[in-house]
Specification:
The complex is a heterodimer of chains A (105) and B (814).
Chain A lengths: L1 E8 L3 E10 L1 H11 L8 E12 L1 H17 L2 E7 L1 H9 L7 E4 L3
Helix pairs in contact in A: 1-2
Chain B lengths: L1 H83 L4 H15 L4 E8 L2 E9 L12 E2 L6 H5 L2 H9 L3 E3 L14 E19 L5 E19 L7 H45 L4 H15 L4 E6 L2 E7 L16 H4 L7 E3 L5 H4 L4 H10 L3 E9 L2 E10 L7 H48 L1 E2 L6 E8 L7 E9 L2 E9 L4 H20 L6 H15 L7 E9 L4 E7 L5 E4 L2 E4 L25 E4 L5 E5 L18 H9 L4 H16 L8 E8 L3 E6 L3 H17 L4 H22 L7 E9 L2 E7 L7 H4 L16 H8 L2 E4 L5 E7 L1
Parallel strand pairs in B: 12-14
Antiparallel strand pairs in B: 1-2, 1-6, 2-3, 4-5, 5-6, 7-8, 7-11, 9-10, 10-11, 13-22, 14-15, 15-16, 16-17, 17-20, 18-19, 18-21, 21-22, 23-24, 24-25, 25-27, 26-27
Helix pairs in contact in B: 1-2, 1-5, 2-5, 5-6, 5-10, 6-10, 10-11, 11-12, 13-14, 15-16, 16-18
The chains are: A alpha/beta (105), B alpha+beta (814).
């Protein structure tokens, strides 16, 4: 079950919190929820602290977000990323996509 | 009347007187005759008496002579017996001179035995007073005298020249003649033997001549010192009598010495042969050769000379090496005169030899310090290979025996060298061949087999090649999840040629598996392989047996075609059944063209459910010989399988092989040995409605938990979860098009270190071949989709689809 929350949204920063599992069934919901908030922000920060798992469709959602950020010139940052999710991103070669900050215990 | 009467009386008387006179006269005549006879008899008796007297005297004389002769002969016999008691020349001479010397009471009695130009042996009996300088006992060698002084003695010179005995009752002492030192009376006799002589010169002027004549073996001498002595005829006669048996004994002893020498050389040669033949290492052979020969000939130096350099050298203690110094070896000049003959130089300083040497050779000779040399050629099949050379630091006559020995040894050495070179070549060739065969075996091992451990069949294979490479082959391939094809076969013959054909066949088979629908149809696949061999057989005459089957574990069916291969066994419900036991095995591949004959290869279908076992094998099993020379009994496989049928399928081939080894004992492998046992794997099959992803989520959790139970590492867990999620997600999205009434069939099996899964969706499938080679690295980073299949290929060790693409097989190991 996906948990998705927009924490902060101003001219400078769009801050999201993603938790649970980001799967095929939730991928469209993720994009529909997040993408409309992208305006002129210079940074999009995603707190993945509670994100446990994502599949290829979930990964596609992150790619879409990254592409949109790129278009508006915003920097995308995934932080608080747990080891398992980092492994998933690495196996899909998406660790090269953007800045990924590990979750500190 | 009276007158008349008187007259008759007178007449009668007169007659009577006349008669008496006549009688008297007759008597007188008789008496005269008797007297004459008696006189004659007396004369004859006197003559006889005289004759008898003379005869008696003669007899007495003869008896005396005979007695003397017998006594002499007895004495001679005694001596002969003594000298014949030993073959040893030294002791023979010692006994002789002492016996003679003591019997004839001489001051010195000696004997000198010559051999060619030197003295072979010398012994002298001497009374205490007349001992020579340095002598201690009665018997001595003539060691205090030099060979030259003996050879220059009047005695030796005279005997050698005149070949007659010398008898001198009174001679003047001559202080210059050491042998005759202090001698006043002398008897000397030549010890002569009449023999056939073979003279073979070993100098550069080689010649051989035979002559029959007397040979002086030596000289026997008796000396009386200080005072003169008139030698008695009897003494001379005695010496004459003993000299002949003495010469025979000496000759016999010399022959014995010669035989012993020859035996010694035969033993040396035997020893050398054993030494050099015990190794195939060339450098060891050469080193042993020079050492053994150097020691055997007591040479100062012995070396082998090949192509202008000294390869190996033996040097006596204290003798310097010449290995780096000698190049010319004084061989070249001599060699031109006598090819393949030994060159023996008794004395290098001999001007005759020196004339033949170049300045360089003379210089090198000085360096070598050799005084005499012997060089024997080493030749093989008419080609000079090198020389064995001996140096001696003293003048030395190289004997015929020594040269023969070295020549014989040289022959052995050159044979051993040739053998060693051949062995090295052979070894190098064998090493190369073995290396290549090992590489070929590795290549072949990688060629045969296929996906043995990655299929829905539990598979166990025992494979042992008769040589490095084999003519047996097999391949196990998963055509689709739960659909496994198995090929087993045997190419005629064994070894590299057969192995090449197996490679060719498997290449053809694999290309068919990758690129066509042939593998799904056993009869077509076998026909295809048959035609491939026929094409290949345009340049050879190989053939192969093959059995090919497709196991459909979903349907519980086996479809197969046999091409002359041994029928496999099925183990089912406690029974062992040979498949098609009463049917024809079919025609081996490569014998006929399937196009020429309809239905040469027929596909048969039987039930084969999960839990059924099958055992396939090649003829190496039945062709195995037992210690009694017979083949393994035909029913051996059936009987053995009956006994071991309950064993785990993975143990069956191992057990079969063990029992076969036990049966065959130490009998070597007769042929390649290949045995395969198979059993359908039991999967946990579940069906899930397409609209219940959460239930599937629960299934994934359950799978991961079970894998963890089988010690799956943590870092692999998240990967497997992603892989299963992608596979199930694909089935839902593409297979059922999210139709809620459709169901997905999922089966899986978790074992120690492995996870196998099949997912069958109700959809029409997809062209998986298009995606089958897309790696995750090939997906552009900004692509939002298209990662599903590449992720499956990245995560799982093996991913298979059925022909349609609606049935997925996944294999994951840790």
């Amino acid at each position: 079950m996906l948990k998705l929350e927009i924490r902060k949204n101003n001219d400078q920063l769009l801050e999201l919190e993603v938790g649970g599992q980001l799967l095929y069934s939730d991928a469209e919901h993720f994009k529909d929820t997040v993408l409309p908030h992208l305006k002129e922000q210079s940074k999009v920060s995603v707190d993945c602290g509670d994100l446990e798992f994502l599949d290829s469709a979930g990964m596609g959602s992150f790619v879409r977000l990254w592409k949109e950020c790129k278009m508006i010139g915003a920097e995308l940052e995934l932080y608080n990323v747990i080891d398992d999710v980092q492994s998933l991103l690495r196996i899909a070669r998406l660790h090269q996509l953007t800045r990924i900050i590990s979750k500190t215990s | 009347m009276q007158d008349k009467q008187t007259k008759p009386d007178e007449l009668h008387l007169e007659k009577k007187i006349n008669e008496l006179e006549l009688k008297l006269n007759s008597q007188k005549q008789l008496n005269d005759e008797k007297t004459a006879i008696m006189k004659k008899t007396i004369a004859e008796t006197e003559d006889l008496a005289r004759h008898l007297q003379n005869t008696t005297l003669a007899l007495i004389q003869e008896r005396q002579i005979a007695n003397a002769k017998a006594e002499k002969e007895k004495l001679v016999n005694k001596w002969v017996e003594k000298i014949n008691a030993s073959f040893d020349l030294d002791s023979l001479l010692s006994i002789f001179v002492q016996e003679i010397g003591e019997f004839l009471n001489v001051d010195r009695c000696g004997i000198v035995i010559f051999h060619k130009d030197s003295i072979l042996d010398a012994k002298e009996y001497t009374k205490y007073k007349y001992r020579r300088m340095g002598q201690e006992g009665k018997l001595n060698d003539l060691e205090s005298l030099s060979i030259e002084s003996i050879k220059e003695s009047f005695l030796v010179d005279e005997i050698n020249t005149k070949r007659k005995k010398i008898i001198e009752n009174a001679i003047l002492p001559n202080s210059d003649d050491e042998l005759l030192s202090g001698t006043r009376s002398l008897i000397a006799l030549p010890v002569i033997v009449r023999k056939k002589i073979l003279e073979k010169s070993i100098n550069h002027e080689q010649k051989a001549s035979h002559s029959l004549g007397d040979e002086i073996l030596g000289i026997l001498y008796l000396q009386q010192c200080d005072a003169t002595r008139n030698w008695h005829d009897k003494e001379v006669d005695l010496l004459n009598s003993i000299i002949s048996p003495l010469s025979v004994s000496i000759e016999k002893s010399l022959l014995y010495l010669d035989a012993r020498k020859r035996t010694k050389y035969a033993e040396l040669l035997n020893n050398l042969t054993t030494q050099i033949r015990s190794s195939l290492n060339l450098s060891e052979i050469l080193a042993r050769t020079v050492n053994e020969l150097g020691l055997a000939l007591r040479a100062s130096r012995c070396f082998l000379y090949f192509d202008g350099y000294i390869s190996d050298e033996y040097c006596e203690m204290g003798v310097p090496s010449i290995a780096d110094k000698i190049q010319h070896l004084i061989l070249d000049n001599f060699r031109s005169e006598q090819s393949f003959s030994a060159i023996a130089i008794d004395n290098i300083q001999n001007p005759l030899n020196l004339n033949k040497l170049s300045d360089e050779e003379l210089e090198e000779l000085e360096l070598s310090q050799a005084v005499s040399a012997l060089a024997c050629p080493l030749h093989f099949q008419g080609i000079l290979q090198g020389w064995i050379v001996f140096h001696s630091f003293e003048k030395r006559v190289w004997t015929e025996d020594e040269i023969s020995f070295v020549e014989a040894a040289g022959s052995q050495v050159i044979v051993a060298m040739t053998q060693s070179r051949m062995y090295e070549k052979l070894n190098s060739y064998q090493e190369k061949l073995s290396r290549e065969l090992k590489q070929a075996a590795r290549v072949q091992t990688s060629l045969i087999g296929g996906d043995v451990f990655d299929v829905s069949l539990e598979t166990s294979v025992f494979y042992k090649a008769h040589s490095n490479v084999s003519g047996d082959f097999y391949w196990v391939a998963e055509l689709a999840p739960d659909i496994v094809s198995v090929l087993i076969g045997d190419v005629s013959g064994k070894g590299p040629a057969a192995a090449l054909l197996t490679g060719y066949l498997l290449g053809e088979f694999n290309s068919a598996i990758a690129n066509s629908a042939l593998p799904w149809f056993p009869d077509k696949m076998i026909s295809f392989l048959c035609q491939s061999i026929l094409y290949q057989n345009a340049s050879s005459d190989f053939y192969a047996t093959a059995w090919y089957g497709v196991f459909d574990l979903n349907r519980g069916k086996l479809k197969y075609t046999n091409a002359g291969h041994l029928n496999p066994y099925i183990i089912r419900n406690g029974e062992v059944i040979q498949l098609d036991a009463n049917e024809d095995c079919g025609v081996p591949l490569g014998l006929i063209n399937p196009k020429d004959l309809e239905e040469v290869y027929i596909a048969r279908e039987i039930d084969f459910s999960k839990g059924d076992k099958m055992v396939l094998f090649t003829d190496g099993v039945l062709d195995q010989r037992m210690p009694d020379g017979n083949f393994v009994p035909k029913d051996w496989v059936y009987n053995t399988l009956t006994k071991i049928q309950d064993k785990d399928v993975k143990e069956i081939t191992f057990e079969l092989n063990e029992r076969l080894n036990s049966l065959s004992g130490s009998t070597p492998l007769s042929d390649d040995r290949l045995m395969i046992s198979l059993e359908g794997v039991s999967f946990n099959i579940e069906e899930f409605p397409c609209d219940e992803p959460l239930i599937m989520n629960g299934l994934i959790d359950s799978i991961i938990k079970e894998c963890v139970h089988f010690n799956m590492p943590k870092d692999k867990q998240i990967n497997l979860r992603l892989g299963i999620t992608e596979a199930v997600s694909n089935a839902i999205r593409h297979g059922s098009k999210n139709k809620k009434e459709e169901k997905i069939r999922i089966g899986y099996k978790i074992d120690k270190g492995s996870f196998k899964m099949t997912i069958k969706d109700p959809g029409p499938g997809f062209n998986w071949q298009v995606y089958n080679y897309t790696a995750i690295d090939d997906v552009l980073i900004d692509e939002e989709g298209g990662r599903g299949i590449p992720l499956l290929l990245e995560i799982f060790d093996k991913v298979t689809w059925n022909y349609l693409g609606n049935h997925l097989g996944l294999f994951f190991y840790w």
